[in-house]
Amino acid sequence: MKLKTFKLGGVHPPENKMTADIPVVPVDIPKRVSVTMSQHLGVPAVPKVEKGDKVKVGTLIGEAKGFISANIHSPVSGTVFKVDGVTDATGYRKNAVIINVEGDEWEAKIDKSETLVKEIKLSPEEIIQRIKDSGIVGMGGAAFPTHVKYMFPDGKTADTLVINGVECEPYLTSDHRVMLERPDEILVGISIMMKAGKVERAMIGIESNKPDAIKILSEKAKDYPGIEVVPLKVQYPQGAEKQLIKSLLNREIPSGKLPLDVGCIVNNIGTAFAIYEAVQKNKPLIERVVTLTGKDLKKGGNFLVRIGIPAKNLLEKLGAEIPENTGKMISGGPMMGKAVNHLDIPVTKGTSGIVIMSEDESKRDSIQNCIRCSKCVSVCPMGLEPYLLEKLAEKDMFEECEKEDIVDCIECGSCSYTCPSSRHLLDHIRYGKQNVMRIMRERRQQ
Structure pTM? Predict the structure, then answer.
């Protein structure tokens, strides 16, 4: 059977899924956690607690501010030590609620049992409100507030819910393990999302390098009307929403448009599980599965981690240390993640993994002149001309960048990966894109 995939561009970096067979284990709760108020796309949450306040697991400590924002809940019980800035994976200081841990007392409304709850009692409107109240965001890395996707503008409807089980980033295996270990909860979560979006069909896209996940979800999906599992070709960036919709439905999202404009809602597999817990168990998003991996780590793993725990605690759980030959540590995957200079950063809702790479593996080759080979053009999944965008951005020619559709770049890094001259294409394109988006915002405000 020929596997579905998108047609334009894409690359196939080494998969390095070394932790795919390692079950998820919980990480011990430390004596102190730092819960940032800006761990989602949009406006940061506003702290609802202050120094000396007592909190339980699930207590609202940060309230969403603005339309695109998300609530933040305490992942631990204890006393607020202070509200102060901490450095996160972006390298910037973000406002955070720092909590001294005292025991592990949960809010009474949260159902901590492992019993599967299949019956969906809430209405679509009540589901969306519960998702909002629980602070659910996209778990694939972007951390877009999930409730916003189900608040359709007038005249807009969807016919298909697209679930991203691709996990196309090299090294990362957190979604894979969730699919293997929590398939029923995921399928109930998808059913909840279908009800919220008022759609009759859901398609789960999973790359063919996860045959065990495809098998278990396909078998169990038979008991859930309207849900289909679709194996996909291994091709990066298969998990990008525009490429995933093209692969599954052969629909193309026009420039400047969203999945809803072609009748789709797109969510990550981890988000489906988080929605199950929110709606059926009244549990806010206070923990997630994180992969810790690297070729030179003595061992890696997949961990259930409370939000706010320092990333270094994953190493401590393994009884391991950062290898001496480490050249780069990345929050997220090596293609789209962000390099960090230490592991004291707190885990956030969008932390899918920590990848530790050796000096040899992470070293960039010296930049050479562009040889006009057009490889960057051939691998761009958005049909852009990365070599041209790089030059325009480098010279601050932002008006020309906009004309060349720089905002359509999904920042997948395929161009930089394939460039034989080791040019920093994505670095410059990101710079240009940020400035063009700033100019566009200023234009709308005039």
Answer: 0.95
